[in-house]
Specification:
By secondary structure, the chain is mainly α. The protein has one domain. Helix content is 76%, strand content 0%. It is built from eight helices and no strands.
Length: 214
């Protein structure tokens, strides 16, 4: 192959890489996934501790409470989930900002906003359904709904970021469906999905894309 042909091929590769970077949000950090998973597992054990010491039962007995139960007893679980979510978002922002700075790119560019809107519809829909289940005390359906809609959001958004994200999304959906057939263990499946799967995904992402840049 002539030297000129090699240069043309290299130029085409450069153009393709530039187009890929401009159309995809690549500032997601694997470390943020690992931390999010750790936060979720800590939240899971905090919920188990609360159930054991304040509700005198197991996670399954919580789901069996009827519609006459007071929402006040579930305030801890709402706070626990909110804390996990808040810490995960703050950590994701920190590591994504750091990665964007290293790569000399803007964190909140047009692709980031497209990614945000792509995920907003399934996440909002799932959140509203979970709130409706909470109000009506159908607690056992919350974990499957969260996992399935979160997985759908990831799968939908994967075309705007790393392809690996779609596999995490599919895994969350599958776990959510399994959870729907084992309603008494929703808290455990929640920990597996938002905890273990996030740690595995984050570790893979860090190994594939970030370990050589640290």
């Amino acid at each position: 192959m002539q030297q000129e042909d090699i240069k043309h091929i290299e130029a085409l590769h450069d153009i393709r890489n530039m187009m890929r970077k401009s159309s995809r949000f690549l500032s997601l950090s694997g470390l943020s996934g690992i931390f999010a998973g750790v936060y979720a597992i800590l939240g899971y054990f905090a919920a188990l501790w609360y159930i054991k010491n304040n509700l005198n039962g197991t996670s399954e007995t919580v789901y069996q409470r009827n519609a006459d139960s007071s929402l006040e007893i579930f305030g801890f679980f709402i706070f626990d989930a909110f804390l996990v979510l808040s810490l995960s978002l703050l950590t994701a922002f920190y590591f994504s900002s750091r990665k964007a700075k290293k790569n000399n790119v803007k964190l909140f560019d047009h692709t980031a906003w497209r990614l945000f809107w792509q995920m907003l519809v399934p996440l909002t829909t799932g959140g509203i359904l979970c709130f409706a289940f909470l109000l009506n005390m159908h607690l056992s359906f919350i974990a499957p709904t969260m996992l399935c809609f979160y997985g759908a959001a990831l799968f939908s958004a994967s075309k705007l970021t790393y392809d690996d994200v779609k596999y995490l999304g599919l895994a969350q959906i599958i776990l959510g469906i399994i959870s729907a057939f084992d309603l008494g263990n929703g808290l455990l499946y929640w920990a597996l999905g938002f905890g273990v799967l996030h740690i595995i995904y984050g570790a893979i992402m860090w190994w594939k894309y970030e370990r050589n840049t640290e």
